[in-house]
Design a protein that fits this description.
mainly alpha; about 80% helix
Amino acid sequence: MVESLSDPQLNQHWHWFRRGLACLFSIPALILMGAFIGFTGLARDAGFTLAQTEFMVFTIWALPSKVVLVGAVLAKSSLVATFIAVCLSSFRLLPMVVAIVPEMKTDKTRKSTLYMLSHFVAVTGWVMAFDRFPKVPKAYRTSFFAGLVLTLLGSNMLLAVIVYEVADKLPPLVSAALIFITPLYFTFSLWGSARDRSAHFAMITGLVLTPVFHNFLPQIDVLGAGIVGGLLAYFAARAVRTKVIT
């Protein structure tokens, strides 16, 4: 991933790549796999073929975006409406990409490497990476992140193949519950990894505002609640800091 690697450097890159692969044996990865069991059952019930389900797992990396796509197909939405809905669902990942790229970039890192890895940025990989990056030398974080996200992707693609054949034996309530595990994990992980109280305030405000936005603007409820909650938290934190300084 880096030009002109000497043998020791190459060995280090492979070492950290394997460390990323080893993240498969972790609670977050297992939770994500549980959610993909539910998603595969949902996709099968919606009439998607195995090939189509695998294509979604590979190309639409964020699980909520895949669920939005399946829901749009079930609702018989137009192609344009479905496209916009999936794009809006994925748009929330842009700030995460902006946050993680500087953590991996060095003077020798290829832009093509960063572009490629940006495709695999989703909440589980993002949270796991930020939790482990302090222990990974910056020069090898691209290799570590590549190993991490590829093991998540590969395991879930394999899991989708297996579950697709037995999904009809899963009760619908179980499939729905498995999908719900992932957002619960995301919420608790983001709460625990928050660096100050303003992040907690933003999360609480967003959670409170989501039902309000859902009633009036259901198409952009999560996005709208997140933007408003984040802005309120930002201005509240800024007001507190100004008061402390003065």
